[in-house]
Amino acid sequence: MAKAAFLRQLLDALEEQKQAVAATIVKINGDYPGVAAGNSLLWTGEVQHGSLGSKELDEKVAGLAPEVLAKHRPVLETLEAGNTAVTVFLEPVVPRPEILILGGGHVGQQVAAVGKIAGYRVTVVDDRPDFANRALFPTADKIICNSFTEALKQIKIGPMTFITIVTRGHRSDYECLRAVIGSPAAYIGMIGSRRRAKGVLELLEAEGVATELLQRVHSPIGLDIGGETPAEIAISILAQIIQVYRRGK
Amino acid sequence: MDRELIEAALALLEQKQPCALATVIQVKGSAPREAGTKMLISADGSITGTIGGGCAEAAVRQEALEVIKRGCPTIYHLDMTADTAADEGMVCGGVMDVFIEPLVALA
Fold it and tell me: Among B5, B7, B10, B24, which would you mutate to test the A interface (most chain A Cβ atoms within 10 Å of its Cβ)?
């Protein structure tokens, strides 16, 4: 079951946010023993899991993989194995972006709904069982009912994590921001009026958190489209997340 | 890459449930989804993930059911530029190559 082993390695790479490239033979013109369409391998830099069926091909894939990773874009390449032309699909293994919603109130609920529609994985955290539950978050991938600081110790935050801090009050906002400010998250947004947000940021600055880190925080959160209702605010937050995800800013 | 889809594929494979994995490998012009997009098709016709919906997806699903029966992979070429595409209401107007491989073939 070479395919099962390949898929398992692929899942591991996604789970651990490892840098990897998956290569699969999609077409072969001619015959080459051991080489068949559907053969896959996973390249992770140090290690190569599986094989396309020929050492020569595997080495060529290893040569191409770094560029595929750097460009974040799949490519279709025709490689030679003996006298046979083999077409290989190489794709970067990048985890699906995830929105981590801290706070299960009205805005958090709408961010979960809109985030799911936009195709993101959604995780919600709240310390109140009345808010962190399936009835309020029917489509969320994960619901965690725990104190924010405890929950954040368990959650893996990576370069594909988009964090929205929308808790019930500035005390919790502060705790959340403090816990995630040094993380490699792609995005950190915090709800609240300019004044309330400023208070939280000043508090952290006084504790010695670097200014560059604090400048990354999107607050007030969301693109300025004049949203007022929780759903409108959620849409402006998603719009901002999409902008960061697709344009990197 | 969609972790849930890979998990679902692995689960079907381990339970030996006939299924196929479709991956968009090349796109020209305007197509609904980018290269790398995947869809998992079970022998009963149910799907996980989407490669854009509509007629294109239905056609890939149909072809995938054939792949599950035949047991060998194929590249399915979808042309959404032709007049027929417009007739069928496919408005994207691009060309898409989809690699379809059987994970578990029908015995």
Answer: B10
> A87 and A26 in contact (C-beta within 8 Å)?
yes
Predicted confidence at residue A70, as pLDDT, reads 77
Nearest to A140 by CA among A158, A152, A122, A118: A122
Three-point CA angle B43, B45, B47, nearest 5°: 105
Sign of CA dihedral A50, A54, A57, A58: positive
Going by C-alpha positions, the residue among B76, B42, B27 that lies closest to residue A76 is B27
Domains present along chain A, CATH in parentheses:
2-93 (no CATH), 98-247 (3.40.50.720)
For B101, the closest of A8, A38, A95 (CB atoms) is A38
Beta strands B74-79 and A75-81, pairing class: unpaired
Task: Give the residue carrying structure tokens 């591991």.
Answer: A12
Q: What rounded mean pLDDT belongs to chain A?
A: 93
- Could you list the pLDDT tens digit for every one of the 107 residues in chain B? 888 899 999 999 999 999 999 999 999 877 667 899 999 999 999 999 888 777 788 999 999 999 999 999 999 998 877 655 555 555 556 789 999 999 999 87
Structure tokens at A42: 């996973």
Range of the domain at B42: 3-104
Q: For the segment A64-122, what is each residue's pLDDT rounded down to a tens digit? A: 999 998 777 899 999 988 889 999 999 999 877 899 999 999 999 999 999 999 989 99
- What ipTM goes with this model? 0.89
**pLDDT of amino acid A246:** 84
Element (H, E) at A48: strand A48-50
A218, A224, A228, A232: CA torsion to nearest 10: -80
Distance CA A174, CA A185 (A): 17
In terms of phi and psi (left: phi > 0; alpha: psi -120 to 50; beta: otherwise), the region of A82 is left
A93 in contact with chain B, both atoms CB, cutoff 8 A: yes
Among B4, B35, B101, the residue with its CB nearest the CB of A74 is B35
